[in-house]
Amino acid sequence: MFKQFNEAGIHFYASRNNLSTKRGNVFYNPMMIVNRDFSVAIINALTTLNNKRMRILDLMAASGVRALRFSKSCVFEELVVNDVSKECVSVIKRNFKLNKIKNKRIKFCNESANNLLLRSSTFDYIQVDPFENIHKFLDLSLRKLKNNGILALTTTDTASLSGTYPKTCLRRYSSLPFKYDFKHEFGIRILVKDLQRLASKQDSFLEPLLCYHYKHHYGLFLRKVHSKRRANESFKNHKYLIYCKKCLNARITNSIFNSEKCPVCGSKLDFFGRFYTGSLWDRRVLSLMLENFKSKEAEFSRESFKLLSLIYEESSVETPYTINTHLIAKKYSLKPCSVNLLVESLKKDGFKASRTHFNNYSIRTNASVADIVRIMKEC
Amino acid sequence: MFKQFNEAGIHFYASRNNLSTKRGNVFYNPMMIVNRDFSVAIINALTTLNNKRMRILDLMAASGVRALRFSKSCVFEELVVNDVSKECVSVIKRNFKLNKIKNKRIKFCNESANNLLLRSSTFDYIQVDPFENIHKFLDLSLRKLKNNGILALTTTDTASLSGTYPKTCLRRYSSLPFKYDFKHEFGIRILVKDLQRLASKQDSFLEPLLCYHYKHHYGLFLRKVHSKRRANESFKNHKYLIYCKKCLNARITNSIFNSEKCPVCGSKLDFFGRFYTGSLWDRRVLSLMLENFKSKEAEFSRESFKLLSLIYEESSVETPYTINTHLIAKKYSLKPCSVNLLVESLKKDGFKASRTHFNNYSIRTNASVADIVRIMKEC
Q1: How many pairs of residues across A and B have Cβ atoms under 8 Å apart?
Q2: pLDDT in tens, B271-328
Q3: Closest CA–CA distance from residue B122 to any residue of chain A (Å)
């Protein structure tokens, strides 16, 4: 029934059928190594930054692989490892023994997520990796975060958020999704908006430190700041996207007084959102994480390092959407040109520009579609 | 320290300083008799309608006066009477003894609201009367409602919702409040929108049965319907209000493509919302409640009956806002005319029209401002 796996040098057991989410199964998804790498690095980065050990909760620990990695690579005030499944908790304990980890700062719990949250005092870091609808655990998770505490969330509900199921997106996240060019970034930004609105009901603000899309999931690391003022201000960054499917021009707006005609090509416009238009990344935290990756190479995957480096690169450009160069080439009957070349040309022209981890063929830039077309013609 | 009070023929104790919300105090607000009358009548109405006894939870019971009234006037499957305060629960038990109520269907609990909700099975009716921010208890209250169960909610946060504190309204309810003519109705509609959006995250729809404003509070009775389809559809009723402060014309819209100029007078427009634009009332339930009031006159206050009758009257007109006739008179330099007379004249002219419980000088009608002005000139 169980099988031994290895991640970042740690051996541990999970169900042989490790990707089944069946009740009683001990789930382990090797693809989530990226998220676990990031969570280890962000805990190390923030522990350094704040010069303070964290009280950490892994709410749905499954095989305990993440908690094992925290135990090996991080220092902390306390680490609470919880799973609602008895089978999981027994495997978690076995895995800690297997790795000879004995640490009085680590506690194992076998409770439903909300039960544990309700009876616990507050944490500096809560990891929420639900199989199901995330909303069931969010209200209490947020309430049980200290000021400046981190909500670490993964979701595989990418199909709803990126527009495959627009009704589901509206129902779950109160926003109209965008199913065109930069749909996954838009999905993450809808989710951030929704989480910030939940936090604002608790007089708090959620500040994105690191949000990304990788394969089947979105990963978010958000800092809770207890501040009515910042909660109030967050609404200024919850805007609509007005998009022209014909000429690909995008515009963001906070108003409901807009023209239905594209100012560039005159076509009828569509609107989407609201979505979060601020930054998805804290460059200081990313840079500390990258240092952590470099100094402890053996404890992280190469893939995660590459991904984080690219995210660091694109975090220098503030535009809250990207532009797909292939789409531009197609719409404007141009020869597609190398993304790297285009980025360099845009920079030479005085624009901000970068590649993006969301799509190999897209760029993040403050240049207009017209400027991009002009430069692509010269490439 | 305690004093005996009387409500609807029931004697009970509460703190002598009964309106203080200090910790340990046993709170009793005589003005809330209207809400308690409505809650008794709606339980009786729905028990008749569904031909099924309810499982009822009074989450913050304070002196227990509401639970005492349920015990005297309603039949039920079970009544759980809870308060987080030990002092309250001891007074509640004393009050039940005082009234010689012995009923195996009644259970007393002394737990924090969320603790009780989390460990309980589902209810047909949950009464939530928080002193503080309502949001702390809503997520679990909704989850612990059966299909077709009733969320009964009171809030005194009327100042935020009706536009005195617009930033607070935005932060707590994610909508821009309206501080002009029909500000309290708009406040209730913002709250309904917010609650429906919370419910939709749980694949449920909240259908208003009775919503009202009375003195210092808003009271809402909403039926939870477990239906993704109805949750999806609810978003069609969450719209913006476009309002002309100059000529008083109001328009509702779901789009962000609108002209900033008033089509009637050309002035610059403002927008507010989103707000719920469907009905606040279920006429079948209201009519059963009125029957209940009539058949058991001694158990209800005259004030509540008058209020409910007026609400029943206005529920026949579907316009989701009202018009203040004094404001019209002032803006258009007319002599104010009797609201009753104006309602009759509008009806004779083929319009729908009614008085409204929200304001003695306002009417609910499908007539335009121009029509009202014309008819007021003739009055």
Answers
A1: 79
A2: 999 999 999 999 999 999 999 999 999 999 999 999 999 999 999 999 999 999 999 9
A3: 16
* Cβ–Cβ below 8 Å for A170 and B235: yes
Q: How many CA atoms lie within 13 A of B281 on its CB side?
A: 25
CA–CA gap between residue A77 and residue A66 (Å, rounded): 17
Query: If residue B209 lies in a helix (H) or strand (E), which one and from where to where?
Result: strand B204-214
Identify the weakest region by mean pLDDT among A304-313, B16-25, B65-74, B139-148: B16-25
In A, which residues are within 8 Å of B118 by CB distance? 114-115, 118
By C-alpha distance, the chain A residue nearest B174 is: A197
**Residue B251 Ramachandran class (φ > 0 left, ψ -120 to 50 alpha, else beta):** beta
The amino acid sitting at B302 is R
Bridge partners of A354, per DSSP, are A364
Among chain B residues, CA nearest to A262: B257
Question: Pick from B114, B135, B170: which is nearest to A232 by CB?
Answer: B170
Cα→Cα distances B163→B188, B211, B219, B267, B357, Å: 12, 18, 18, 22, 19
**B interface residues, A as partner, C-beta within 8 Å:** 114-115, 118, 133, 135-136, 139-140, 143, 167, 170-172, 174, 197, 200-203, 228, 231-232, 235, 240, 242, 253, 255-260, 269, 271
- Label residue B174 left, alpha or beta by phi (over 0 means left) and psi (-120 to 50 means alpha): left
The CA distance from B361 to the nearest CA of chain A, in Å, is: 31
**What is Dmax (Cα atoms) for chain A?**
68
- Interchain proximity A201–B171, CB inside 8 Å: yes
Cβ–Cβ gap A135/B202 under 8 Å: yes
ipTM: 0.95
Residue B86's CB is within 10 A of a number of other CB atoms, namely: 10
| Option in B170, B235, B271 nearest A256 (CB) | B271
Q: How far is B256 from chain A (nearest CA, A)?
A: 4
Distance of CA B79 to the CA centre of its chain: 22
How does pLDDT run across A182-233, given as a tens digit for each residue? Answer: 999 999 999 999 999 999 999 999 999 999 999 999 999 999 999 999 999 9
Give the residue from chain A lying closest to B170, CA to CA. A232
CB contact under 8 A, B232 and A118: no
Residue B268 CA, distance from chain mean position = 33
Cα B196 from Cα B373, distance rounded (Å): 36
Which residues in chain B are closer than 8 Å to A253, comparing Cβ atoms?
256
Contact indicator for B162, B187 with CB cutoff of 8 Å: yes
Find the length of chain A.
Answer: 379
Detail the DSSP E strand segments found in A135-237: 145-155, 204-214, 217-226
Q: In angstroms, how far apart are the furthest CA atoms of chain B?
A: 67
Give the distance from CA B274 to its chain's centroid: 18
Q: Flag if B258 and A257 touch (Cβ within 8 Å).
A: yes
Which chain A residue's Cα is nearest to B132?
A202
| pLDDT confidence band for B19 (50 / 70 / 90) | confident
The 3-class SS string of B71-82 reads HHHCCCCEEEEE
Cα torsion angle, A303, A309, A311, A314, sign? negative
Q: Which single residue is written with the structure tokens 């400046």? A: A148
Q: How far apart are CA B152 and CA B147, in angstroms?
A: 15
Q: Are A306 and A341 in contact (CB under 8 A)?
A: no
Angle, to 10 degrees, between the axis of helix A183-200 and the axis of helix A135-143? 50
DSSP alpha helix (H) spans, B318-358: 325-331, 339-348
**Structural domains of chain A ordered from first start:** 2-276 (3.40.50.150), 322-379 (3.30.56.70)
Angle at B282 between CA B276 and CA B286, to 5 degrees: 135
